[in-house]
Amino acid sequence: MDRTYFINKIKELKEEKRAVILAHYYVDGLVQDVADFVGDSLELARKAREVEGEIILFCGVYFMAETAKILNPDRKVLIPYYKAGCLMADMVIAEEVEEFRKENPEYAVVTYVNSSADVKAVSDICCTSANAVKVVESVRAEKVLFLPDKNLGSYVAEKVQGKEILCWEGYCPVHQKLTVEEAERVRKKYPDAVFVVHPECRKEVRDMADFIGSTSQIVKFVKETDARKVIVGTEKGTIHWLRKLRPDVEFIPAYSEFTCDQMKMITPERVLKALEREQFEVEVDLKVAGKARRAIEKMLEV
Ligand code: SF4
Predict the structure, then answer these.
(1) pLDDT tens digit string along 98-121?
(2) What is the Å distance from ligand 1's center to 193 Cα?
(3) C-alpha 16 to ligand 1 mean position (Å)
(4) Per-residue pLDDT tens for 124-172?
(5) Considering only CA atoms, which residue is closest to atom 6 of ligand 1?
(6) What percentage of the chain carries pLDDT values higher than 70?
(7) Residue with CA closest to ligand 1 atom 8
(8) Rounded to an integer, what distance in angstroms lies between the CA atom of residue 272 and that of residue 5?
(9) CATH classification at residue 295
(10) pLDDT at 33
(11) Which atom of ligand 1 is nearest the CA belonging to 262?
């Protein structure tokens, strides 16, 4: 699609419909360029509560748009493509969590926001990769079930003292694909580069990194770094944003296909259609939304 046409058309539609566009760092660069706000899950969850406008067009995967709807029950929340899901979020269902809770009442359930509204609704509190350590530290229980990401869970377990943390067997296939061999290869090729990774990466890969942080923490790190080359151990879409922020730095994806196909389903064409037709509206069952909201708001308080 022609860039200028797309940008102008979106601008026009946003004004006409009083719409705001929130976009995740992992979506297409052109979509990021027309967004009112670009961020990671935590930043977007916060923004979703603060932004004005009659329509929120959420450019990310489904659970993110659902979170925006849960926090804005009275507003119209749209997602450009409702089939854009999160493979990690699908690795746990609410029934399994309920069963676990019945059998293990001494555990607090801490759920990464990369999960469905149903799962959030049966959790004690949510967290993101940016605040997971703080959230787990904040719960009173000594035993914590962390779900669905075992990699983020193991990262939290390394940082939190005095709690027993049980990790669910879920993971992000996109971050999991970064193996030690790949990381060694890229480090060898760019020996003078700084290596930053997301905590959704495997522990062995995290152990090789110079910096570990959520996408927003990586953005902050890059803003301030003296390094001239950075190997990016998270989804490639982030590099679009990082290049705008630091045109003087060379960014290298940790492996060439570091791409979330689900996020890439949010194409400029679908974003445009979504605004023109006001599709696809995100709905969350009121009872589920109420319970999930409690878990998300508890997180935002932390
Ligand atoms: S990158 Fe991984 S965790 Fe993020 S949306 Fe894609 S599948 Fe889900």
Answers:
(1) 999 999 999 999 999 999 999 999
(2) 25
(3) 32
(4) 999 999 999 999 999 999 999 999 999 999 999 999 999 999 999 999 9
(5) 260
(6) 100
(7) 86
(8) 11
(9) 3.40.50.10800
(10) 97
(11) 6
Question: What is the pTM (predicted TM-score) of this model?
Answer: 0.96
* Cα–Cα distance, 33 to 115 (Å, whole number): 27
Span 181-204, average pLDDT: 98
- 200 close to 177: Cβ distance less than 8 angstroms: no
Looking at this protein, which amino acid is placed at residue 17?
A: K
Identify the residues whose C-beta falls under 6 Å from ligand 1. Answer: 26, 61, 86-88, 114, 172, 174, 235, 260, 262-263
Q: What is the CA(27)–ligand 1 centre distance, in A?
A: 11
Neighbour order of strands in the sheet with 37-39: 37-39, 19-24, 55-59, 76-78
Q: Which atom of ligand 1 is nearest to the CA of 61?
A: 5
Same domain, 74 and 38: yes
Looking at the CA of residue 86, tell me the nearest atom of ligand 1: 8
User: Which pLDDT does position 1 carry in this prediction?
Assistant: 79
Q: To which residue do tokens 């706000």 refer?
A: 37
Q: Is the same domain home to 157 and 294?
A: yes
Same domain flag for 72 and 99? no
Instruction: From the CA of 87, give the closest atom in ligand 1.
Output: 7
Neighbours of 56 (CB within 10 A): 25
Number of domains in the chain: 3
